[in-house]
Design brief:
The protein has a domain of 66 residues. It is 58% helix and 0% strand. It is an all-alpha fold.
Length: 106
């Protein structure tokens, strides 16, 4: 009996345009990034006092990566709107109000 997958991960990147250097991120860079994220998550788990299994740790790593991807994709979607609003406010001569960042804002 085969085990049913616990999750499905799909990633579509479209509307970005041409990338000048598609091979800019090589295997060495991926390994370095993995070690960086792995160390960060290990420190987080230690501070929280969590003792995850290997499978739970990998699930946490995937959740972290998913949240980072979601955050960046949201910014890519909103950035043109922010830029348009910024330009509109400049044309109207309005002073642009910058709100302070909140701690823990994701």
């Amino acid at each position: 009996m085969t085990e049913k997958p616990r999750f499905t991960l799909r990633l579509w990147l479209s509307g970005i345009g041409e990338i000048e250097a598609p091979n800019a991120i090589d295997a060495k860079t991926v390994i370095e990034a993995w070690h960086l994220l792995n160390g960060f998550l290990m420190d987080f788990v230690d501070k929280q006092g969590i003792e995850p299994t290997d499978e739970q740790f990998r699930e946490m790593l995937l959740e972290l990566l998913y949240r980072l991807i979601y955050r960046e994709m949201s910014v890519l979607q909103l950035m043109p709107i922010w830029e348009r609003e910024f330009k509109d406010q400049l044309e109207k001569g309005k002073r642009i109000q910058r709100l302070p960042r909140q701690k823990g804002d994701v």
